[in-house]
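For the sake of clarity, the format in which proteins appear in this thesis is described at this point. Each number in the token line that follows is a code from a learned vocabulary of backbone shapes. One such record is shown here in full, so that the layout can be seen directly:
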Amino acid sequence: MARSDCPICQGTGWKLVERTAVGAQPLAVDKPGASAAGEPKLQWAVPCDCTSTDRTSRALASARVPERYRHCDFDNFETDNEIEGVSRDQVGAWNRSLSQAKIVVQRFAADFSPVRETQTEHGLLLIGTCGVGKTHLAVAALKEVTLRGHSGLFYDYRELLKAIQDSYNAESQFTEMGVLEPVLKTELLVLDDVGSSKPSLWALETVGHILNTRYNEKRITVLTTNFLDAESASNPEPSRAPGLRSPIADDTLTDRVGKRIRSRLYEMCRTVEISAPDYRKEIRNISRFAR
């Protein structure tokens, strides 16, 4: 909402700007801002700057971004963390991984365009264990894209499957296509926590249909997952956090989504693996005890 004490719009939420246009009628000389020469100008009503916060909230709500993540943007994504009891070299490696991921996702958001001739066909697959900031970066990209006027949608993997299942209920107010159509058509889809539910045949077929349709229609998808690829799980890099592994120790991303979907993701997404400790567990606990 507009600020009631805003000196520009006086609480209306709108401000007047002047735009020169061929054929415009001259403003009356007694109107504020009009020139004595009666130059052809138009007065245009545009949203006042004081409504930008409300506009952001509406855009994020329309995109189904959960309240918990609506603060997420690139500016508050931390890449210079300090962790006690860990070598400086190890912390530096983790922070470099976070910085590189931020650069890739930020560039993706800046270059996003729905124009088929200029749009990259590749989305992003953000891989890393719990708490490394995958959802933060995905929401930051979604926020930037939607605030530029593009359509976007956020869905938790499990919630999307549940919404589709619920649509089969005769008493449901939504049909299957009523749930699926926005997911298939939105310019940018963020699918969070991929592989988190049991990989049933129905779930794999449903997710496969969504990804294949979006791929064929050249629509862009950003996905996050806690499950690592087989080569990452079996050959951890020196920079990987101690104990960094998939939530279900023996499961890889392919185990959770199947070979066909993993193969499709290679085609439609650039894989960004983030190697860092659980921010929520390690860093926030340290801050709490330091008070």
Summary: Strands lie at 14-20, 41-47, 123-127, 152-156, 188-192, 220-225, 269-273. The chain has two domains: 1-62, 63-289.
